[in-house]
């Protein structure tokens, strides 16, 4: 059961109270969008950025997302019920609503960030590399594939994670059919090469990460060069540091990629500090 549940028009409700109908298109089709924001000190982190991305996803999906002000009020109620003492993950969900028609279903859940995600910031990740099945340019040219929209249908992403775990990995990096590194199923790829911090451009169909954007902006301010570019997995293997970033995971270094040991960078602590994620043992 979620620790806190907040429903549009009702506010925070008892977490064991049913509120989602069986014919909701979010359930039947995974037809909807979501965001997950980090909660620290009882406040959602980068909420404006998450709501802006959610509005872009809504536009792509032709979904009627409520105004940001309404969502912010509901998020504040959820955070108040959660308290300030622990790090949380706030999910903001908007589905297409009942199959027979009607308004979108909008609600939020708030749970503590799982230990495994927090520990990965310190211990790093062993990633599989799995094909997404498309060449790198496909999703940018086929809007119906919803590249770059954060839609609810994560069944393929979850199946890929199960496959990665079953083969002894912590998680995975998606690879395009033509060999380019893309992103994780729930995280953004960041790497350090030629004294530059890189991430993958959005024209590959990846989701533009709020955490990576925030870290890159802080890095630029600190005089660290940043850029976006495509990279082949084969080239990525010799990077001077690789991280996966997300609102839940924070900044987690990759120590092994497809069985290859990856160079570790002393930038890890700097990047985590820039994004303000607590690192265990620090
Ligand atoms: N890429 C994908 C596919 C994701 O699902 C996520 C987050 O869940 C990210 C990247 C990381 O984005 P953010 O830093 O905004 O959490």
TrEMBL record:
InterPro entries attached to this UniProt entry: Aminotrans_IV, Aminotransferase-like, BCAT-like_C, BCAT-like_N, Class-IV_PLP-Dep_Aminotrnsfr
Gene Ontology CC annotations of this record: cytosol
MF annotations from Gene Ontology: lyase activity
Keywords tagged on the record: Lyase
Pfam families reported for this sequence: Aminotran_4 (PF01063)
Protein family: Belongs to the class-IV pyridoxal-phosphate-dependent aminotransferase family.
Protein known as: 4-amino-4-deoxychorismate lyase
């Amino acid at each position: 059961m979620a620790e806190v549940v907040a429903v549009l028009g009702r506010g925070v409700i008892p977490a064991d109270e049913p509120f989602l109908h069986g014919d909701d298109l979010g359930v039947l089709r995974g037809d909807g969008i979501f965001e997950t924001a980090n909660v620290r000190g009882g406040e959602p982190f980068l909420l404006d950025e998450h709501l802006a991305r959610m509005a872009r996803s809504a536009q792509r999906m032709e979904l009627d997302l409520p105004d940001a002000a309404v969502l912010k009020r509901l998020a504040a109620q959820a955070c108040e019920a959660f308290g300030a003492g622990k790090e949380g993950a706030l999910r903001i969900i908007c589905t297409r609503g009942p199959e027979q028609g009607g308004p979108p279903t909008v609600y939020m859940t708030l749970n503590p960030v799982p230990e495994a995600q927090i520990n990965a910031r310190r211990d790093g990740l062993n990633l599989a590399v799995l094909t997404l099945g498309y060449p790198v340019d496909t999703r940018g040219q086929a809007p119906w594939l919803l590249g770059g929209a954060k839609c609810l249908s994560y069944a393929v992403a979850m199946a890929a994670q199960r496959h990665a775990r079953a083969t002894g990995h912590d998680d995975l990096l998606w690879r395009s059919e033509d060999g380019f590194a893309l992103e994780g199923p729930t995280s953004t790829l960041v790497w350090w090469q030629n004294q530059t911090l890189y991430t993958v451009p959005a024209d590959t169909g990846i989701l533009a990460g709020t955490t990576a954007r925030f870290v890159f902006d802080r890095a630029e301010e600190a005089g660290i060069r940043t850029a976006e570019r495509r990279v082949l997995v084969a080239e990525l293997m010799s990077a001077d540091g690789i991280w996966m970033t997300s609102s839940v995971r924070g900044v987690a270094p990759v120590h092994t990629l497809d069985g290859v040991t990856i160079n570790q960078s002393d930038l890890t602590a700097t990047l985590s500090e820039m994004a303000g994620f607590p690192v265990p043992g620090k």
